[in-house]
Design brief:
Length: 184
């Protein structure tokens, strides 16, 4: 951030008074700009022992598989966002949503809330952000073609617990650390 979104003056990056972390601060109007993590909501949708996956039609990770997921929108609940993303990416409706995984990815300031739900009627089709959609049994998950570490962790947990009911396991909570990139 170079300029204040309130008054268009240049901002400084420093620790504001009465704060403990550096922030973008406008010395002209006094606005402190907080840049908070992005929340990603998604769905592990099940149908008769199978899981719904989507092949991405957009970057990042074009052509790789993922669970239906995307950024949470303003004024929606996390569960509603997960259901919306499932409709958008897989033209599929889900019911009986329950929180399945909470995944922190601090290096890229993201928080994932993955819900588990039942696919209505087993119906699905690619939406505009998907090349394909498919129902797969746990033994047919394309591990080497998964788009994101968060989806791999979620699906590994599902396979390792045998798809156990959350009343037995509780939601998965995990911090995912990505390798530090070396400067070019």
């Amino acid at each position: 951030m170079n300029y204040c979104s309130q008054c268009s003056h240049p901002v400084d990056f420093r620790v504001p008074d009465d704060d403990s972390l550096p922030r973008h601060v406008c010395d002209n109007c006094g606005t402190v700009h907080y840049i908070n993590p992005k929340i990603i909501v998604g769905c592990l949708a099940e149908w008769e022992g199978q899981i719904l996956i989507c092949k991405r039609a957009i970057e990042p990770r074009y052509g790789l598989w993922t669970l239906p997921a995307g950024f949470m929108e303003r004024e929606e609940t996390a569960a509603a966002g997960a259901a919306r993303e499932t409709v958008e990416e897989a033209r599929a409706e889900v019911t009986d949503l329950s929180l399945y995984a909470v995944l922190d990815v601090p290096q890229i300031s993201q928080l994932y809330l993955i819900y588990r739900g039942t696919l209505v009627g087993g119906r699905h089709a690619p939406g505009p952000e998907s090349l394909e959609t498919e129902l797969v049994t746990p033994d047919r998950i394309p591990w080497d073609e998964l788009a994101f570490p968060t989806m791999q962790v979620t699906l590994q947990h599902y396979v390792e617990t045998g798809g156990a009911d959350l009343t037995q396991t509780g939601p998965l909570t995990k911090t995912i650390r990505r390798p530090t990139r070396k400067p070019c």
